[in-house]
Amino acid sequence: VLHGDNLVDEGPVSEFHGFYELYGPGNKMFIKTVTHRRNPVYQAILPGYAPEHLLVGGAAIGATTCFALKKKIPNVTNVLITEGGMGRLHAIISMHQPKAGEGKRAIMLAMGHTNLLKLIIVVDDDIDPNDWTQVEWALAARMRGEEDIMIIPGVKADRCDPLEKDLTITKVGIVATRKPSDSLSPEKFIPARAPERILAQVKETLDRY
């Protein structure tokens, strides 16, 4: 039973970013009966900057954000909330052949939908968002700094952001995708690698040893 007027001072809370937060008093819960099977196992998520805490929350945030974006931009293929971004604050959005301006639109929609997000990178769907080396390659090969970086100060933040000030934060969006104009000079952007047929033959030969 929860009573709105029965509060208790919880003290410092170990948050996802690895620091303590003071959220003030919380509701006290009264439990009269607990039913369980014999020899029960009770699983609790380790709080703070712990993989379980980060990944469980990050998976849910990524799924709901992706679902919301697909309603507005159908060629969004995936939204990954990164573990390094504390499972809450950083996202990588994958898109299939985004048109001019769609990457920035996806960034703004994601920030509007998910209050916690403060750094978002948009990549093409040929980049694996789980592979940071590929994401960094996209930043190096496809991002034009003068037009692809958005810096938005004074945006509403969540109270648990470690850098929030007066519940605001500076948010950053980066578009690291191919541009429609790149097709005008395709020879510049052809991947320099051996044909897939040759790579397959080499792999088959090496597997024999």
Description:
The protein has 209 residues and is an alpha/beta fold. It folds into two domains: 1-33, no CATH class; 51-179, 3-Layer(aba) Sandwich (UbiD C-terminal domain-like). Helix content is 29%, strand content 25%. It contains five helices and nine strands. The strands form three sheets. Strands 5-6-7-9-8 form a five-stranded mixed β-sheet. A two-stranded antiparallel ribbon has the order 1-4. Strands 2-3 form a two-stranded antiparallel sheet. A hairpin with a 5-residue loop joins strand 2 (13-14) and strand 3. Helix 1 (51-72) crosses helix 2 (102-113). The chain is globular and about 70 Å long.
The domain tally reads: 2
State the CATH superfamily name of the largest domain: UbiD C-terminal domain-like
| CATH architecture tag of the largest domain | 3-Layer(aba) Sandwich
Shape: globular
Report the major sheet.
Answer: 5 strands, mixed
- CATH class (first level) name of the largest domain: Alpha Beta
* Spatial ordering of strands, largest sheet: 5-6-7-9-8
Give the total of beta strands: 9
- Spatial separation of the terminal alpha carbons: 67 Å
The number of helical runs is 5
Helix content: 25-40%
What ranges have pLDDT less than 50 throughout 5 or more consecutive residues? none
